[in-house]
Specification:
Helix content: 25-40%
Order of helices and strands: HEHEEHEEHEHEEEEHHEEHEHEHHEH
Shape: globular
Strand order of the largest sheet: 9-10-8-7-13-14-15
Distance between the termini: 31 Å
Structural class: alpha+beta
Strand content: 15-25%
Number of strands: 15
């Protein structure tokens, strides 16, 4: 009985223009797209009892994809035709907003989740490592993406759990306390985990608690645990043959230079913090609209904003994290079966 399948933004497009169209970057996440060929997959559609008649037309994110209906222009007092751009999924739009549009350019997004995004000129999947391989929102471009389900949200969680006045207050407390004391390791799998484990049963874990553990110790372990999970993602991307160049940082977690030093040291690479990086996706959507309504080339328009600052790896932290990462990586395999067993005990399981 399905007449048409639309993603949320494309339902809005239908209401605005009367056209059923989706862009390739957003459509890549449906599992119905042949990402390498940039077209709907007849095999996947058939497997779910559908065919292309139920699917929207496809377009590049920077292409025109409908026009605002005349009656809406009149109702809203808008003169002349209004082009609607193809648009993009949130991460692809963020990439356009901060100029990640050429092979090897990359960014980390530290929001509720944590995303490591690398632009590329070819389709390069690594499903065993939980790496997403999707169409970029620009013609002839793809991107690889590792994703952890809990990023900066882990810091919000531990601040609330320990009664800290705010995340900012907790960060100040962690930095003031320093890194003394025995190693404490945090697995940031509060919502299960995607890259590289693909395990919905994975749970958050503190390992190494003692009577001496303080709130600052818990907070630091959370910052480091998220960083180590992003290193797992970086390794999975490189295992797919992805060459990673300069890496920018955007999202709410980008506000903390202290966390930036931890991230740069764990990832063992400098991180650039662009000015206005927190508005990257919205700015990217505006750039796609300009591309769809003009004749500019993406490479000319989608330049990177100026960097506010660059955080270099700390030599002392880099050495310490090599050892602590080994402990971090041993914990998930040791607990995988226990995670699954614990899930079977949950109410309603």
């Amino acid at each position: 009985r399905v007449t048409r399948v639309l993603l949320p933004k494309d339902w809005l497009r239908l209401r605005l223009s009367g056209e059923a169209i989706s862009d390739l970057s957003d459509a890549s996440g449906t599992l119905w797209l042949d990402v390498a060929a940039r077209r709907w997959s007849p095999r996947m559609l058939e497997a779910t009892g559908l065919d292309e008649r139920a699917m929207p037309a496809l377009c590049e994110g920077s292409e025109p994809a409908g026009a605002l209906r005349a009656e809406l222009c009149a109702e809203w007092g808008i003169d002349g035709p209004v082009t609607i751009a193809g648009g993009a999924g949130d991460q692809a739009a963020g990439a356009v907003g901060i100029g990640v549009v050429a092979p090897g350019q990359a960014f980390l997004s530290l929001g509720t989740s944590g995303v490591y995004f690398v632009a590329g000129a070819a389709y390069a999947p690594n499903p065993e490592g939980g790496v997403h391989a999707l169409c970029h929102c620009l013609p002839g471009m793809w991107h690889q993406m590792s994703a952890i389900l809990s990023g900066a949200s882990c810091l919000d969680w531990v601040a609330r759990l320990t009664g800290s006045a705010s995340v900012a207050a907790l960060l100040e407390e962690i930095e003031s306390a320093g890194a003394a004391g025995p190693p404490l390791v945090f697995l940031p799998y509060l919502s299960g985990e995607r890259t590289p484990h693909n395990d919905p049963h994975a749970k958050g874990v503190f390992f190494g608690l003692s009577h001496a553990t303080s709130r600052a110790d818990l907070g630091r372990a959370v910052l480091e645990g998220v960083a180590f999970a992003l290193v797992d993602g970086q390794d999975a991307l490189e295992a797919a043959g992805t060459a990673i160049g300069e890496v920018a940082v955007i999202g709410g977690g980008a506000r903390s230079r202290f966390w930036g030093r931890i991230l740069a040291s764990a990832l063992d690479r400098p991180l650039g913090y662009p000015a206005g990086g927190e508005v990257g996706p919205a700015f990217g959507a505006a750039r796609l609209a300009r591309l769809a309504d003009g004749s500019e080339a993406p490479a000319e328009l989608c330049s990177a904003p100026p960097l506010d600052h660059v955080v270099e790896p700390d030599p002392e932290l880099r050495l310490r994290y090599r050892e602590r990462r080994d402990l971090f990586r041993r914990l998930y395999p040791a607990l995988r079966e226990s995670f699954a067993a614990a899930s079977s005990l949950e109410p309603g399981a």
